């Protein structure tokens, strides 16, 4: 059965120390100003966080890293702040992973070293204003014109797409029609600064204030033909595979959120005095925290089982179907547990929980998107049902 190794636990302490020293003292002011801390990204790169699943020839950890280590890092960053956690999760899962998995050697050599080092970030452009869960409804088009692709369309809610160090965004675009009449989708890399590539103003979001999120517009955006990622017409399959891995990473982010709520609420229940005694004496509070502890433990076990299966798949010991099912189960349970955890923690804090000076308020705002991004809870239930053999 799976378990975290001592190396994983030692690594956890390294990332926790980084998060508490580099993120915790600054996060309240960053959140209030909706400021993306560009200078933090290279520091994360120096720690090796962006290279945990990347071979050594591109600057990564090689055999010293694995997907489980990435989840440990995301959890620990997410325990201090969810925005910083998603910056890493998206930077690796949505930025680096498609290039690493489907890119040519030239594409890997061009983009990966800077992405792994934290000198650059990459985005993943799938969602559109009218194509979210129904990714097959993509309207962005790419037309071949000689030695170029000309891309036109729009993307929505794209993470890490408009920072000062964003180097490239990989987007899905219609490049033709399949025999059954459905849209043929391909993945195309569009470097930042390409004429016709317009980064729209940052969204005014409910949560994840420190995460960089923009809409993107492509107006006859011309890129060389060799910017096609993988085979023409394979973009939809590529991005679905990318999302499978991303769901495990989001589960780890949710575990970090729930763990933070458990710690914050438990400490508060020990020190907050009402009617002459700590509120944690009251069963109305203590039972809620007991339930929260169960939710955290369950979420963590499901997440790291899925991460372990992902590493076992990489070693040729597991099936894709098995990992997909575990990823969907972990994502569904962990994200819904995180949302519940923030509600419980805020309730324990009472009126103080509604005040921005207390971190539980930030976690409360940040948690909801976990049930939406990387596939909604409804999509996860659909995938789990299919995994049980029920009709599609």
UniProtKB/TrEMBL annotation:
Domain called Acyl-CoA oxidase/dehydrogenase middle: residue spans: 124-221
InterPro entries: Acyl-CoA_DH_CS, Acyl-CoA_Oxase/DH_mid-dom, Acyl-CoA_Oxase/DH_mid-dom_sf, AcylCo_DH-like_C, AcylCo_DH/oxidase_C, AcylCoA_DH/ox_N, AcylCoA_DH/ox_N_sf, AcylCoA_DH/oxidase_NM_dom_sf
Alphabetically ordered keywords of this record: FAD, Flavoprotein, Oxidoreductase
GO molecular function: acyl-CoA dehydrogenase activity; flavin adenine dinucleotide binding
Co-factor requirement: FAD
Every Acyl-CoA dehydrogenase/oxidase N-terminal domain range: 5-118
Protein family according to the UniProt entry: Belongs to the acyl-CoA dehydrogenase family.
Name of the protein in question: Acyl-CoA dehydrogenase
Lineage: Bacteria, Bacillati, Actinomycetota, Actinomycetes, Micrococcales
Gene: fadE19
